[in-house]
Specification:
There is one protein chain. This protein has helices at residues 4-21, 38-52, 55-68, 73-92, 98-113, 119-130, 143-151, 155-161, 165-179, 184-196, 202-225, 232-248, 253-267. The chain is mostly helical.
Length: 277
């Protein structure tokens, strides 16, 4: 049974995901401003509804972590079972967010294990959970794992087992952009582009292949090299990249899910270090 603390973590994760969805323009990703395209509008609304459907499962993951008390194989197996049930519920609500569920589920469980910890320490706890295998997972490989094996990409599992390096990169980018005077939306878009610039996104590898992935990474780096979303040149490069990816139907969904993970960690309260007093 979940507590208020568990439910608060789940709602914070959902808020992070819906906050990511609200950003615009996101290269190749659903845009809430595009009300002229019926399919796009329905896609975005469906993603918002299905994001909210994650809350009960995420709260259950937090409760499982508190009950277990350590990043053990038992906890990993329980999180996998909850995740598969949550995927089914999200499918009934419109689908989507499978990659984000993996990221947010591990981070929510890690945050429950280490309340008040710094973002880097939460990511480390998530790494310890992800190090264990889920013995009850279906034997049939997922599309992401198949793509990872084909191209040698780390994939979602590798990202988690490495301690979410791209989530940590996104956090650094958020802090850098805010210090430079960017507003919150600009800082979040810069963080998304930072992830896109280096992530071996298995969704892109599936739809666009290695050449397409490198094309997207280069486009993201071009925006950042032009000064990011706060400059006129960077904004123009962002709009051009967005139009290009939508025209090609290439969607960096993996980067979007990792940005949601960063926004979740960024919103967590951190206990003061008594040694700093």
């Amino acid at each position: 049974m979940s507590s208020r603390e568990d439910e608060a973590l789940a709602l914070a994760a959902v808020d992070a995901l819906t906050g990511q969805l609200a950003l615009a323009p996101k290269p190749g990703l659903p845009d809430p401003r595009d009300l002229g395209a019926r399919a796009t509008r329905q896609d975005h609304c469906s993603l918002r509804w299905s994001a909210k459907a994650l809350a009960p499962g995420l709260a259950a993951m937090a409760a499982a972590a508190r009950r277990t008390g350590e990043p053990s194989p038992r906890l990993r197996t329980e999180l996998g079972a909850i995740g598969r049930c949550t995927e089914h519920s999200v499918g009934l609500a419109g689908g989507g967010h499978r990659g984000a569920l993996w990221t947010l589920g591990l981070l929510v469980a890690a945050a429950a294990l280490a309340p008040g910890a710094r973002p880097g320490d939460v990511a480390l706890a998530a790494k310890k959970i992800a190090a264990h295998s889920d013995k009850r997972a279906p034997r049939r490989p997922s599309r992401g794992s198949s793509v990872s094996a084909k191209y040698g990409a780390a994939g979602a599992r590798g990202e988690a087992r490495a301690g979410f390096p791209h989530v940590r990169r996104a956090l650094d980018a958020l802090a850098t952009s805010r210090r430079a005077g960017a507003d919150e939306a600009e800082a979040r878009l810069d963080a998304l582009l930072t992830v896109m610039s280096t992530l071996q996104d298995t969704e892109l590898l599936h739809t666009a292949g290695p050449l397409g992935l490198r094309h997207v990474q280069a486009g993201a780096r071009e925006v950042l090299a032009a000064g990011g979303t706060t400059t006129e040149a960077g904004r123009a490069a962002l709009l051009a990249l967005d139009a290009d990816l939508h025209a090609r139907a290439w969607s960096p969904r993996g980067s979007a899910g990792l940005l949601a993970g960063a926004l979740f960690l960024d919103a967590l309260p951190v206990k003061a270090d008594p040694r700093a007093a």
